[in-house]
Amino acid sequence: MSDQKVSFGKLFWPSFVAVMIAGLVSLLLFFLVLGGVIGSFGNFGPEPLAIRNSTILQLKLTGELKDKSDQSLDIASFQVDRTVGLPDLLYGIEKAKTDPKIKGIYLELGGLTCGMGSAKELHDAIKDFQTSGKFAVAYLSGEYVSQTAYYISSAAKEVYGFPSTTMEFTGVGVQLMFFKNLLDNLNIEVDVVRGTNNDFKSAVEPFFRTNMSDSSRLQTQAFLRTMWRTMRNDISENKGIDTLILDNHVDSLHILDCESAYNAKLITGLRYRDEFMGLLKKKMNMDQDEELEIQSMEKYALKAFSDRQLLVKRQKPNIAVILAEGDVATSGDGLSSASICRLFQKVRNDKNITAVVFRINSPGGSALASEEIWREVAQTQKKKKVIVSMGDVAASGGYYIATPANRIFAEPTTITGSIGVFGMIPYTGKFMENKLGITFDRVRTNKHSLTSLNAKLTPEELAVIQGQVDKIYTQFLTRVSEGRHMKMEKVAVLARGRVWSGEDALRIGLVDELGGLSKAIAYACKGQSAPKVIYYPIVKKSTLSEIAEMIEQQQEEEEASVKMDIAIPSELKAIYARIKKIESMAGIQMRMPFEYVME
Q1: I need a surface site. Which of 14, 156, 245, 294 has the fewest CB within 10 A?
Q2: Most distant CA pair in the chain: distance in Å?
Q3: Of 239, 223, 267, which is closest to residue 117 (Cα–Cα)?
């Protein structure tokens, strides 16, 4: 026998092709089998979201409440990760108000995190729902009920609680994190350049101070007072308790659990879950052994909103709502000028669109991106009405892009203004040399040919950057002056990087009217005999997400699928998010002076 050698290619490529073909065949068979399984669902189960007569909608929000809905598939667990946006919920509640199959809503808010503006809009929607004669009942249960969850729940005429559930009722506060000592220990210096007289622009303070400045403390106390006053006054009206008594409960830490809340008349009664379900059956005039028809409010709202959008698209919409949420940037997943500018160009060139509602929920960000968006809003405003609705926050760049609007709406608690500009230039040369043992040398043709984080800026270079920051700040003042029809001198007094509450912003002329998204849309629809509202960007569900959702609908038991959840402490998440945000900063910034979260 001859000793023949076989080349690697002759062995590898036939094997590779065979494996690929086998893999594709297996994948095809998987989807054929899956399709058969899904097709068989119709033979033994209700259609997804089949709303029957005498249905109660359960509102059970967990996680962060945002403006934009999102739906994606977790491949590892083949489960749908679903985020229901505030506009969807507001539309769902409004539709349920007139839906003859819906008899009421019961709220059981979980680990909800949202801004006070969103909480106020949801609270008001629940309150309005009850004007239809239908009921809204809340049940406070689980290990812990946040103050925000109770505030929204208080809109229901009846609120019940599990006797031993812990409850927060302490007022509102903000905790800021400062990095100066850390930077000093690392031998890292930061040159901070703020617009002239931007003493309220405290976003940069954590990098050169160890505590809040007097200006920062003043503005923070002012808007926190407005937040608590709004929350407290609504609870007072809802439950018929004097505001002085509520303040006393907060200052004395009287409210620790549902039992103490009941004794203070903040809730209607104490019930175990079976007793609460029995109460719902009584409201529905049902026998105790009958089964309640309960449907997810989130799923109801998503489907109602989605169905309405599909219908409107076919009917030539005349009102456009553009949702803009997150940090202002030129690109990315947040409020990017690349995507927002395209949307404004689209609606501006649509002859059927007569008015645009620009929903802003942003602490600001890139000055360049803010100017790009401002330009598109201003161009659109020349051709059709632009109405701005501010959510939890519309500060700095988030306010900048609102200035060309015909009318601006804000909630009393919306964080507004922060008309100011800053830049930060870190110097890491000492850190690299003293901590890591790394040194640098340079060659350049001209005096300023090379700029580096490892070379400290000269006074001349800092002066140039200060000039650029002041130039952008003056442009900001001009945008506000022209958009709000104010003299520059007055704007300069109101600006200085200061944050205002929506309530105070109305008083000083930075906004026109208090109200949420629904009120802004109603204003845009004036004069329209048949308003048809379309929302952008349009959320598209993937085919795999729809398949997973159908499977999920059929799971009778919670244990049918297991999803691993690795718990990461919230403090670490916050630090990681802050680091990622700092990494994304480029150029001169228009950004809110701090961050806050309502739980």
Answers
A1: 14
A2: 104
A3: 223
- Give the model confidence (pLDDT) of 370-386 as tens digits: 999 999 999 999 999 99
Distances (CA, A) of 83 to 71, 183, 400, 539: 6, 37, 28, 11
pLDDT tens profile 543-573: 444 554 544 454 433 433 333 334 455 555 5
3-state secondary structure (DSSP) of residue 80: strand
**pLDDT for residue 28:** 53
Which residue carries 């000492």 as its tokens? Answer: 430
Q: Which of 256, 253, 268 is nearest to 161 (CA)?
A: 268
Q: What are the beta bridge partners of residue 239?
A: none
**Residue linked to tokens 């601006």:** 408
CA end-to-end distance (rounded Å), the chain: 80
pLDDT of 85 > 50? The answer is yes
Decide if 454 contacts 179 (C-beta within 8 A). Answer: no
Using DSSP's 3-state secondary structure scheme, residue 27 falls into helix
- What is the SS3 assignment for 115? coil
Instruction: Decide the pairing of beta strands 513-514 and 407-410.
Output: parallel
- pTM, rounded to two decimals: 0.83
Strand boundaries in 350-400, DSSP class E: 355-362, 364-366, 385-395
- What is the rounded CA–CA span in Å between residue 118 and residue 116? 5
Identity (one letter) of the amino acid at 140?
L
From residue 177, alpha-carbon distances to 191, 218, 222 in Å are 19, 17, 20
Contacts 24+ apart (CB under 8 A), 282-289: 283/103, 283/104, 283/135, 283/137, 284/54, 284/56, 284/103
pLDDT reading at 5 higher than 70: no
